[in-house]
Design goal:
Layout (H helix, E strand, L loop, with lengths): L11 H4 L2 H4 L15 H31 L8 H26 L4 H8 L11 H10 L12 H10 L5 H11 L4 H10 L10 H28 L5 H19 L7 H11 L4 H35 L11 H6 L7 H5 L26
The chain binds protoporphyrin IX containing FE.
């Protein structure tokens, strides 16, 4: 081998491009003096989060592409679940990483905080793309904030690269996980029949009737044990049933995705429905883990800067606490309020369609 022939042995440093990665912790160009230990810690924690955001974005896109088809291959449901489970685990890991950030004392943070200028996690475009991939709409955000508009402005001012803007536009053009999930749920065969509104309506009406009957027994029981009177309890129970009706049959119209969702959640013993139910549960788990991540960030920030304004110009902790109200998969959360115990429900029709387990 000649002296300058490339050495083909792969090394750890080569594989991970460690030279490059480990040369990126000294802050932006011209950042003098060099970051203190505390500031380097601050940079490392942020960069670690961004790496994980990158992975979450990738997992979400993989899950999305498998679910965004007319007919989802059943074999792909466990694969989708595993992509989403990885996202939840990453969020759980990130939620505990705020603890490392908290080893920075408020005074040590203040010592370099001015060097951040107006930069803020608020401008993390990877956080925005993952929210977009999940399906958080601008109308749902605090102040109707549109991340695309914000980043287009940054791009026009030369503060965001062309490649990032192109990537954001690409993701903006994709349907969200929430959208494709609802489309998939809408195709759920209810009582063994797919796409038949009358079958769905019968199922939903039957469910509401069971809720009504159960409500009557709750009212009678509460009065009997002295936990209120007919006048105080009945309106509360009835308002719950009316909300369920509004959800399942708004303007007296069947919403196939909601009927499918209720069916899957009600008959979890049916073998064919077990993976779909697992997928729904995984999505709820993902949203919950993301909310806990947001919540832990807010508590860390409160501990670090109290109630002062954020470097991004928001009200700080108050703003972060408001983001805890975000819910993307609203239907998946809402259906939980109207489930009834399995033994109160009639057995599903055509249960053999779902591979009903026999008694022997
Ligand atoms: C000393 C540590 C930190 C403090 C005091 C802090 C403070 C804040 C504040 C006040 C906001 C609200 C926006 C603003 O006005 O700036 C914010 C937003 C945000 N921060 Fe932090 N942060 C810290 C560390 C981090 C780290 C390590 C990350 C990881 C990437 C991060 C990610 C975010 C994100 C994604 C937002 C946007 C939240 C949203 O709009 O939903 N922060 N942060």
């Amino acid at each position: 081998m000649s002296e300058d022939a490339p050495d083909t042995r792969m090394t750890y440093g080569n594989y991970l491009q460690l030279d490059k990665l480990l040369s990126l912790q000294s802050g932006p160009k011209g950042h003098t003096p060099a970051p203190s230990n505390h500031e380097m810690h601050f940079i490392v924690v942020h960069q670690a989060f961004e790496l994980w955001f990158k992975q979450i974005n990738r997992e979400l896109e993989e899950a999305l592409s498998l679910l965004n088809v007319e007919e989802v291959d059943e074999k792909n449901i466990p694969v989708i679940v595993s992509h989403l489970e990885r996202c939840s685990e990453i969020f759980r890991l990130l939620a505990s990483q705020w603890k490392v950030m908290e080893t920075l004392a408020p005074q040590d943070f203040l010592a370099f905080r001015d060097r951040l200028g107006t930069s803020s996690g608020f401008e993390s475009w990877q956080m925005r793309t993952l929210e977009m991939l999940l399906g958080l709409e601008s109308e749902q955000r605090i102040g109707g904030m549109d991340p695309m508009e914000h980043n287009r402005k940054l791009h026009s001012e030369g503060k965001l690269s062309d490649s990032v803007m192109t990537e954001m536009n690409r993701i903006d053009s994709l349907p969200s996980l929430n959208e494709v999930l609802l489309r998939w749920l809408a195709r759920t065969p209810v009582n063994g029949v797919a796409g038949d509104e009358n079958v769905m309506r019968d199922f939903v009406e039957g469910h509401l009737k069971v809720m009504q009957e159960h409500g009557e027994s709750v009212i009678a029981h509460m009065i009997k044990i002295g936990h209120g009177s007919e006048e105080t309890i009945r309106p509360r129970i009835e308002s719950g049933i009316n909300s369920a009706r509004d959800f399942l049959l708004p303007d007296d119209k069947v919403v196939p995705a909601r009927a499918g969702l209720l069916f899957i959640e009600s008959y979890r013993e049916l073998p064919l429905l077990s993976w779909p139910r697992r997928l729904i549960d995984t999505v709820v788990d993902l949203e919950e883990s993301m909310l806990l991540f947001r919540s832990h960030h807010a508590r860390m920030v409160e501990r670090m800067i109290g109630r002062r304004m954020g470097t991004g110009g928001s009200s700080g902790v108050d703003y972060l606490d408001m983001t805890l109200k975000y819910r993307i998969f609203t239907d998946l959360w809402a259906v939980r309020t109207m489930l009834v115990k399995r033994e109160a429900l009639a057995d599903p029709a055509n249960s053999e369609f779902y591979g009903y387990a026999s008694d022997n």
